[in-house]
Amino acid sequence: TASPSPTPSVTPPPTGQPLALVTSGKWGSTDQRLTAFDPYTRTEVWRVPFPAGSSPGCIAVHPSGTKAYVCEAKDTSPSSPPPPGNIAVVDLLTRTIVARIPIGVIPSQAAVSPDGSRLYVTDWGKWTGGPTAGSGGLTVIDTATNAILGKVMMGLGSGVEVSRDGSVIYATSQTRNELWVINAALADSCPILSSF
Which of 9, 38, 54, 129 gives a 20 to 30 Å CA spacing to 1? Predict the structure, then answer.
């Protein structure tokens, strides 16, 4: 009779290591939150409640592991225009929301530069009976001060990612069906290396 295969050894992460972060909360729900899960036991470890109507969505974690940036799209009725959204800054050590950064309507995705100095957020911009043409794009934020440094106007911004060396930002525009390749060092002045 064949011997049973040995059970693989799995070493859980040491205490204090980042866990799996998930946002949840349907539009109109009062149960809206950021939840941390232990990926080994698949159990909830802690949660940060968000106010009703926040609609927490995308998450970007600072390289230090001490902060997370959560997109708040804001609830609205189907007949009402969506209000401007926020980026909620969550202190992962105290598990509290410590700041909110105003962003355009429906912040879509967020990414932090490898050195942790910049946060990049895509959004839909302004809303006047629908998305205002050309008002959305990529917002550049200083993570030390939470100040908005500039905005690359590219229509309805959706996805965003940063190269490993932090020199290039990749962002997608739903309006134009394009991928924009942006020089991170000059993002405030919107130099486009290429778009397709």
Answer: 9
What is the 3-class SS of 24-72, one letter each residue?
A: ECCCCCCCEEEEEEECCCCEEEEEEEECCCCCEEEEEECCCCCEEEEEE
- 181-187, Cβ contacts within 8 angstroms, sequence gap of 24 or more: 182/138, 182/152, 184/113, 184/118, 187/118, 187/120, 187/138, 187/140, 187/149, 187/150, 187/152
Q: pTM score > 0.85 for this model?
A: no
Closest to 153 measured CA to CA, from 134, 169, 177: 134
Structure tokens at 183: 């020089």
For residues 173 and 181, what is the distance between their CA atoms, to the nearest angstrom? 11
Nearest residue to 118 (alpha-carbon basis) of 158, 84, 150: 150
Evaluate whether 77 touches 103 at the Cβ level (below 8 Å).
no
Q: What is the DSSP string of 64-111?
A: TSSEEEEEE-----TTSPPPEEEEEEEETTTTEEEEEEEEEES--EEE
When the pLDDT of each residue in the chain is averaged and rounded to a whole number, the result is 79
Contact 99, 62 (CB under 8 A): no
**pLDDT above 60: residue 14:** no
8 Å CB contact between 98 and 86: no
Cα diameter, the chain? 73
Between CA 120 and CA 87 the distance in angstroms is 11
pLDDT computed for residue 11 by the predictor: 43
